């Protein structure tokens, strides 16, 4: 029933949009013929060097293009049952940007970025319920000096039951962090971060995304992954 009502609402909204565009005042065939005729006229003007609309695309891809194909509807609504929340990076790698942490420090003007990466690695690899990176000196944190990959956007899928979400309560948002958006000024989106802090807004804090990058970390001596056992609270 919910899925039927949602589709009926979309059909009603589509009819309002088509009416505003005067697409329902005549038959669909004649409207299509008008569109084809207008496109032919524009193409003829472009080939003659006059009057047509200028195409300002210089071959650069929209940072969101790799993510649109994963969005089933395009407006953030994600159909289907409730699923686990996740964040996926865009498919397109930005090869013209920094290739390691040192060059990224210069590009982003974040001098303490190498230290932040080391603290992050400690929390991911060595922290447990009794201690984290706040409890140890920086010298105890793993080092990283390998290559990195930079991306301009990511897609966050999460459970948020509301009218803009699908019937299962799932929604997808595209998050951008690009130095130049649509050949204009930079765009760094603002997000909610689930930190669990009691001093935050519903245990979430507000942050601005400055860069998306990924890397692989392995033991520098052996080249192998560092693995440690995981235990339950009872020690098993």
N-to-C SSE string, H for helix and E for strand: HHHEHHEEEEEEE
Give the integer mean of the pLDDT values.
77
Q: Whole-number radius of gyration?
A: 25 Å
- Strand order within the widest sheet? 1-3-4-5
Q: What portion of the residues fall into strands of 2 or more residues?
A: 15-25%
Describe this structure in words.
This protein is α+β, with helices and mostly antiparallel strands and 236 residues long. The model is unreliable at 50-73 (pLDDT under 50). A four-stranded antiparallel sheet has the order 1-3-4-5, with no helix packed on it. Strands 2-8 form a two-stranded antiparallel sheet. It has helices spanning 2-20, 28-47, 65-68, 101-108, 113-125; strands at 86-89, 149-151, 153-159, 170-178, 187-188, 190-194, 204-208, 212-214. A hairpin with an 8-residue loop joins β4 and β5 (187-188). It has five helices and eight strands, in the order αααβααβββββββ.
Helix and strand topology:
Elements lengths: L1 H19 L7 H20 L17 H4 L17 E4 L11 H8 L4 H13 L23 E3 L1 E7 L10 E9 L8 E2 L1 E5 L9 E5 L3 E3 L22
Antiparallel strand pairs: 1-3, 2-8, 3-4, 4-5, 6-7
Provide tags for this entry:
single chain, 236 residues, alpha+beta, four-stranded antiparallel sheet, two-stranded antiparallel ribbon, 8 strands, 16% strand
